[in-house]
């Protein structure tokens, strides 16, 4: 029985995992870098331990130090979250060797699916349709040119070890091939341990639709339905929803069966995601498998009423999933927005800093998976994503209305965020109608462009409003200390002033 888990991650996902542990009565150990002492995952955990310097390779990627912490605190298992060591076979093997349960994919599946060239070969052998392309590393520019011509332009050069949208370059003409190949290769070299690059046919206006799968040690592999992830910037997801607006019951059944087949082909255990490209004629092709929990897993949880982290822990502990495929169906609609500390008006450059004011949305159908708080300083060393805003409603139309409402309620000052950009997305006709593909953000760039001065003046106005409401509180201390509230409470000049400060912008 797993009684104690070390979470080898930070940020919102570390808190997310610990929340499920709490509900299961499992105690938690946080590990943190020197830059993360004040981070929410540290205070949330039952115990915590510093594992090294701010740079990821010294801490969150430092296998020796994480294992040492696991032994010192006597944990039964390690949950790796996503990113960092979650898809690292060396780490999973090391855990096994030390007698610690790794709450993630089996090493074999990780090796077979972790590398895109390998995954394509494995999937073809299993009879899964893959995006047309090559299956070996391109060693020279000449090879790149030859194979691009064979497959037919346009093509994408992709890093075999790629992730997070990095190492992907488009070539529409033969002239572009050299640059695309070289850029993909050097980006791969800079970001991943390997610089292997291969070619995929570029599918025009595709949908990114993925299937959550879950397997146990008894050979059961189930699919947990679809997520639409086509709202992307630079091949990275910004907004996700479930079910996909493009989906039909027939397509879901067909893709779900292929997802299960893919999982079974590698003996999958735990939570994984099979990503597909789907063209406008609803032809679908295997893209890649992520052998871990995904950032956007909450939308699946919301429509299925399941806790994926609990299921992960359960199957890692050697228990059966305890569900049947026919028991799994989506109810209502869920949307997730990724909230990032970045400057949406300045090419989305990361914008870490002090959070001065934070009001997170609440109310019916609202879920905030986050880790920041008022007064917290977002460190410069890690991902700019500070949290995720998830809504559930009975149908898609209501879910969009709800997302508009919670984005309106979400107030964060001190750092720049993409919240106003997300608000605009919720009003773009293509999104509202559910007619969009991976080209959506680029196509609607004009509608999504911002007014440059808005954020700065808003931050200033909010400072004034905070002061004004505090003055209001002081001035009305008498009233505030009695039961006179609501309509009975006199409106002070200060409150009026605070409101005007907000209206002015
Ligand atoms: P999802 O498919 O769930 O959106 P992403 O591919 O965007 O996940 O990656 C999730 C997180 O993991 C991000 O923080 C990303 O930067 C990180 N990540 C993904 N792949 C890699 C990789 N190969 N190496 C390092 N970090 C990665
Ligand atoms: P990563 O490992 O970085 O997540 P993926 O292979 O999953 O990389 O691709 C990320 C995104 O890049 C896809 O969701 C899609 O928008 C785009 N993409 C990747 N391959 C293709 C392709 N063959 N045709 C068109 N778009 C693609
Ligand atoms: Mg992907």
Write the layout of secondary structure elements.
Blueprint: E1 4-7, H1 11-24, E2 27-33, H2 40-44, E3 47-52, H3 63-72, E4 77-79, H4 89-97, E5 101-102, H5 107-114, H6 116-125, H7 141-151, E6 155-159, E7 168-171, H8 174-191, E8 197-201, E9 207-215, E10 221-233, E11 236-242, H9 249-265, E12 270-278, E13 284-290, H10 297-304, H11 308-316, E14 333-340, E15 342-343, E16 349-350, E17 357-359, E18 366-370, E19 385-393, H12 396-409, E20 411-413, H13 419-425, H14 429-433, H15 440-443, H16 445-448, H17 454-475, H18 477-480, H19 493-503
Parallel strand pairs: 1-2, 1-4, 2-3, 4-5
Antiparallel strand pairs: 6-7, 6-8, 9-10, 9-12, 10-11, 11-14, 12-13, 14-19, 15-16, 17-20, 18-19
The protein binds adenosine-5'-diphosphate (ADP) (2 copies) and magnesium ion (MG).
Give a written overview of the molecule.
- The protein has 505 residues and is an alpha+beta fold.
- The chain has five domains: 4-103, 3-Layer(aba) Sandwich (Rossmann fold); 105-128 and 205-331, 2-Layer Sandwich (D-amino Acid Aminotransferase, Chain A, domain 1), CATH 3.30.470.20; 132-201, Dna Ligase, domain 1 (2-Layer Sandwich); 332-450, D-amino Acid Aminotransferase, Chain A, domain 1 (2-Layer Sandwich); 455-504.
- The protein has helices at residues 11-24, 40-44, 63-72, 89-97, 107-114, 116-125, 141-151, 174-191, 249-265, 297-304, 308-316, 396-409, 419-425, 429-433, 440-443, 445-448, 454-475, 477-480, 493-503; strands spanning 4-7, 27-33, 47-52, 77-79, 101-102, 155-159, 168-171, 197-201, 207-215, 221-233, 236-242, 270-278, 284-290, 333-340, 342-343, 349-350, 357-359, 366-370, 385-393, 411-413.
- The strands form five sheets. An eight-stranded antiparallel sheet has the order 13-12-9-10-11-14-19-18, with helices on both faces.
- Strand 2 (27-33), helix 2 (40-44) and strand 3 (47-52) form a beta-alpha-beta unit.
- Helix 4 runs antiparallel to helix 5 (107-114), helix 12 (396-409) runs antiparallel to helix 13 and helix 17 runs antiparallel to helix 19 (493-503).
- The radius of gyration is 24 Å and the shape is globular.
- It starts with a strand and ends with a helix.
- The model has no long low-confidence stretch (mean pLDDT 93).
- Residues 82-83, 163-164, 192, 236-237, 290, 294-296, 383 line the site of one adenosine-5'-diphosphate.
- One adenosine-5'-diphosphate is lined by residues 131, 156, 162-165, 168, 200-203, 206, 208, 232, 235, 275, 277, 287-288, 438.
């Amino acid at each position: 029985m797993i009684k104690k888990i070390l979470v080898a991650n930070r940020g919102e996902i570390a808190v997310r995992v610990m929340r499920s542990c709490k509900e299961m009565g499992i105690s938690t150990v946080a590990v943190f870098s020197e830059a993360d002492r004040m981070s929410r995952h540290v205070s949330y955990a039952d115990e915590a331990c510093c594992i090294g310097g701010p740079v990821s390779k010294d801490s969150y990627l430092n296998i020796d130090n994480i294992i040492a912490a696991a032994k010192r605190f006597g944990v039964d298992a390690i949950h790796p979250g996503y990113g960092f060591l979650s898809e690292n076979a060396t780490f999973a093997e090391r855990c096994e060797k030390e007698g610690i349960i790794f709450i993630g994919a089996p090493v074999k599946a990780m090796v077979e699916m972790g590398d895109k060239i390998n995954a394509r070969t494995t999937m073809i052998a299993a009879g899964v349709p893959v995006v047309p392309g090559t299956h070996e590393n391109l060693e020279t520019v000449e090879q790149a040119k030859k194979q691009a011509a064979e497959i037919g332009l346009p093509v994408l050069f992709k890093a075999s070890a790629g992730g997070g949208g990095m190492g992907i370059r488009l070539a529409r003409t033969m002239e572009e091939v050299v640059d695309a190949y070289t850029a993909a290769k050097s980006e791969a070299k800079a970001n991943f341990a390997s610089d292997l690059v291969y070619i995929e046919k570029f599918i025009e206006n595709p949908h990114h639709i993925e299937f959550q799968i879950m397997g146990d040690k008894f050979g059961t592999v189930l699919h947990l339905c679809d997520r639409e992830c086509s709202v992307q910037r630079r091949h990275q997801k910004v907004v996700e929803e479930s079910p996909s607006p493009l989906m039909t019951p027939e397509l879901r059944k067909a893709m779900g069966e292929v997802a299960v087949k893919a999982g079974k082909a590698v003996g999958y255990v735990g939570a994984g995601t099979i990503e597909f490209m789907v063209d406008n004629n609803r032809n679908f092709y295997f893209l890649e498998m992520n052998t871990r929990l995904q950032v956007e897993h909450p939308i699946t949880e919301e429509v299925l009423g399941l806790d994926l982290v609990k299921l992960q822990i359960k199957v890692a502990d050697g228990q059966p999933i305890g569900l049947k495929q026919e028991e799994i169906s989506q109810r209502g609609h869920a949307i997730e927005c990724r909230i990032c500390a970045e400057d949406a008006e300045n090419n989305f450059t990361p914008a870490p800093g002090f959070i001065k004011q934070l009001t997170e949305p609440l109310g019916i159908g609202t879920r905030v998976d986050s880790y920041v708080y008022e007064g917290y300083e977002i460190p410069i060393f890690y991902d700019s994503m500070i949290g995720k805003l998830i809504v559930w409603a009975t149908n898609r139309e209501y879910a969009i209305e709800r997302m508009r409402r919670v984005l309106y309620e979400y107030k964060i000052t001190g750092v720049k965020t993409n919240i106003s950009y997300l608000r605009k997305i919720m009003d773009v006709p293509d999104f509202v109608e559910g007619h969009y593909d991976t080209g959506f953000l680029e196509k609607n760039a004009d509608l999504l462009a911002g007014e440059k001065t808005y954020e700065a003046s808003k931050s200033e106005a909010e400072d004034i409003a905070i002061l004004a409401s505090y003055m209001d509180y002081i001035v009305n201390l008498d009233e505030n200390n009695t039961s006179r509230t609501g309509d009975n409470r006199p409106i002070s000049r200060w409150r009026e002033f605070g409101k005007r400060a907000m209206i002015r912008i």
